[in-house]
Known about the structure:
Blueprint: H1 3-6, H2 14-19, E1 28-38, H3 43-60, E2 65-72, H4 75-78, E3 97-104, H5 108-122, E4 132-147, E5 166-174, H6 180-196, E6 201-209, E7 229-236, H7 250-257, E8 260-270
Antiparallel strand pairs: 1-3, 1-4, 2-3, 2-8, 4-6, 5-7, 5-8, 6-7
Amino acid sequence: MSEKQEHPEREPRPYKQLASEGPYGPGIGSALITMVEPHPGHELSYNRWYEDDHFISGAMSMPWMFAGRRWVATRPLQLLRYPADSAVASPVTAGAYITVYWINEGRYQDHLDWTVAINRRLLPDGRVYQERTHVFTSFQNYLGVVYRDGDKGPRDIHALSYPYAGLIVEVYDAGPDQDPAALSAWLREKHLPGKLAGSPVALAMVFEPMPLPGKTPTYVKPVEGVGKRITVLYFTEADPAQDWDRFAGDGAAAEASGLGRLEFAAPFIPTLPGTDEYADQLR
C-alpha cells in the first residue's frame, strides 16, 4: 500500500488552500440581480425549476455567494411600473420574477470564475430552462446603503434574510453629459435620506451594473447601460403597493436634478419558497 493510501489526509486538497487565502469578511462587495420573464404557459414549470434546482445549484451552492432571495410581481404590481418607455424592460411589465444575491467583498472574481465554469456544465447537462427571457440580469458593484433608522435595525448584509414585505427596484441612467458617480451621490446623499424618513422603507442599497463575463451563455441578455446606470433596491416593511405614491414622483425628481432619468420603477413581493404561490397571478 502506498504512503498516500495509508495517509489520505496528506494528499493535496485544493479546497483547504482556497479557504486559507484571500478575504473572508462578511461585507457585501457585489450582487447578482436577475429579473426574468417566464414564457406564457410555462410559469409553473419555470418556478419549480428555479426553486428546486437553479437557485441552489446555479447560485447558492457556489463559493462566496452568501445570501439570496426571490421576489415576484403579480399582474396588479406589474401595472404600477413606470415609465412606459422604459429602457430596461419592454414592455415595462416584463420581468415577473427577480432574484437578488449577495457576494462577499473582495471575492467577485473568484465567484465569477466558479459560476462561469458551472454554467458551462449546466446547459449541456440539460439543467437550463429555456422557456424564459432575461430582462435585466447583471452582476452589480455595491456603492453603499442608506438606512432609515441609522444604526438600528437589520444591516445591509441581513436584507435578504430578514422577512421584508416588499422590494422596490429602481434603475436610473445618467444623462449623456453627466457622471454616474454624481447621480449616485445625489441619490445617497440627497434623495434617499428624505425619502426613507418616516416611511415603511427600512433601507435602500445602491449598485452599478458590471459587464457580464465574455463567455456568458447566449440566453442571457447582454448588460446595457454599463458605465452610466445606477440600480437602487428598497426593502420595505409594508406591501409596496400600499406605499406606491412615495415612489410615483421619483422620475420627476431625477429629471429636476439634471443628473439623469429614471428608466424603471417596479414593486415586488417575496415568493414563498417551496410553493407555486403567485405563479398563476402573473398574467
